[in-house]
């Protein structure tokens, strides 16, 4: 549901950086634990961008992995064995195992965001 | 094609506004809590009971988030504290800009604690900072004791969890002890309170936590 407003914010940011130049590509990074569904963003973008310099631009989504860090020793947890699982299942299993230092204080430190990496605009 | 680097968070505008709201509350020594829960977990009932118990001791104000109705703010208004209703128009969570608008209608200088009741949803609200000091999850026992495992981010980003409707435990397959254990597995730093907003059981620990948080903020 909230993808409509998030897509609006994304479009505003793109238009701000493009400064009137025609946008052909938008490169985005979506965290695995973010609250953003790329398909839904694409759907709203098509409507919202109509009549702007971003109309018809291709959206490129790159996935940012879930990252968890131990608050006691600062080590980043190795989550590779659960790479194919849903992020929440990954998180729960990582928490159950804890850090190799013995601590169970793992915090999510990455993979929750939605970022714009760059824009492609038409060469003048 | 020419590439323009951006490297910016899409939700940065919300984060900046939330920080501005937080700074304002620091200045005014007001504690701000963001209550997150599923629909029907008992957020409003917990607020009603909290208002009743802290009456005459702490000045509370409430910001009520709801997709379309004002039913909850009417309940809170009837409990006798200032309340502002935010209707999200079907939206699934509150955002900082909505809080900013609500604050224009709320005299927070006369408040000790502002409680924001988020839209009933355990997923989306956790992604939007509202400028609060702490997120509090209300998880009711009838929803199941596996809630923390299904919605880990809500519990991971909260400072406290209020387990509500514990009076129903004899009639349910879910167990309070399991819910507590699951919540602490996700976040060992959580303060956990077992209450029944209906009967008033167990509320004292929750009220003490609010008192402590306020003192902490005023002393910092």
Description:
The complex is a heterodimer of chains A (124) and B (220). Chain A has 124 residues and is of the alpha+beta class. Chain A has two domains: 3-65 and 111-121, hypothetical protein PF0899 fold (2-Layer Sandwich); 67-109, no CATH class. Chain A is built from three helices and five strands; from the N terminus they run αβαββαββ. In chain A, helix 2 links the parallel strand 1 (23-31) and strand 2 (58-64). In chain A, helix 1 (3-18) packs across helix 2. Chain B is an alpha/beta fold and 220 residues long. Chain B is built from eight helices and eight strands. Chain B has helices at residues 12-27, 43-54, 71-78, 96-104, 147-150, 152-156, 176-186, 203-219; strands at residues 2-9, 31-37, 60-66, 83-87, 113-117, 134-140, 160-164, 191-194. A seven-stranded parallel sheet of chain B has the order 4-3-5-2-6-7-8, sandwiched between helices. The longest helix of chain B is centred in the last third of the chain and has 17 residues, at 203-219. Chain B starts with a strand and ends with a helix. At the A-B interface, helix 1, helix 3 and strand 5 of A face strand 1 and helix 6 of B.
**What is the approximate shape of chain A?**
elongated
Q: What is the name of the CATH architecture of chain B?
A: 3-Layer(aba) Sandwich
Strand order of the largest sheet of chain A: 2-1-5
CATH class of chain B: Alpha Beta
For the sheet with most strands of chain A, the description reads: 3 strands, mixed
Q: Strands across the major sheet of chain B, in which order?
A: 4-3-5-2-6-7-8
Largest sheet of chain B: 7 strands, parallel
Number of strands of chain B: 8
Topology, number of strands of chain A: 5
The share of residues in helices of chain B is 25-40%
Structural class of chain B: alpha/beta
Q: What's the order of the H and E elements of chain B? A: EHEHEHEHEEHHEHEH
The helix tally of chain B amounts to: 8
Largest interface: A-B, 38 and 31 residues
């Amino acid at each position: 549901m909230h993808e409509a407003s998030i897509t609006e914010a994304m479009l505003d940011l793109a238009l701000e950086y493009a400064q009137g130049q025609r946008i052909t590509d938008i490169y985005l990074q979506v965290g695995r634990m973010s609250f953003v569904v790329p398909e839904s963003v694409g759907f709203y973008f098509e409507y919202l961008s109509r009549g702007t310099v971003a109309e018809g631009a291709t959206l490129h989504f790159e996935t940012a992995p879930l990252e968890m860090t131990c608050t006691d020793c600062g080590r980043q947890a190795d989550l590779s064995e659960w790479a194919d699982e849903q992020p929440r299942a990954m998180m729960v299993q990582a928490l159950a195992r804890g850090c190799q230092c013995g601590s169970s204080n793992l915090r999510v430190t990455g993979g929750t965001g939605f970022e714009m990496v760059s824009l492609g605009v038409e060469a003048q | 094609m020419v590439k323009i680097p951006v490297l910016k968070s899409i939700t940065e505008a919300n984060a900046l506004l939330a920080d501005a709201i937080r700074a304002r509350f620091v200045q005014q020594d007001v504690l701000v809590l963001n209550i997150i829960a599923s629909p029907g977990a008992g957020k409003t009932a917990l607020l009603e009971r909290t208002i009743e118990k802290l009456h005459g001791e702490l000045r509370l104000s409430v910001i009520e988030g709801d997709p379309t109705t004002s039913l909850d703010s009417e309940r809170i208004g009837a409990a006798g504290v200032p309340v502002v209703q935010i209707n999200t128009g079907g939206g699934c969570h509150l955002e900082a800009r909505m809080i900013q608008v609500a604050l224009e209608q709320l005299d927070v200088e006369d408040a000790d604690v502002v409680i924001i009741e988020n839209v009933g949803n355990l997923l989306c609200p956790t992604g939007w900072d509202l400028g609060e000091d702490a997120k509090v999850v209300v998880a009711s026992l009838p929803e199941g004791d596996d809630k923390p495992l299904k919605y880990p981010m809500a519990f991971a980003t909260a400072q406290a969890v209020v387990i509500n409707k514990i009076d129903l435990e004899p009639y349910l397959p879910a167990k309070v002890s399991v819910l507590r254990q699951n919540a602490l597995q996700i976040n060992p730093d959580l303060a956990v309170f077992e209450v029944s907003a209906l009967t008033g059981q167990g509320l004292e620990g929750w009220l003490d936590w609010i008192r402590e948080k306020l003192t902490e903020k005023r002393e910092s």
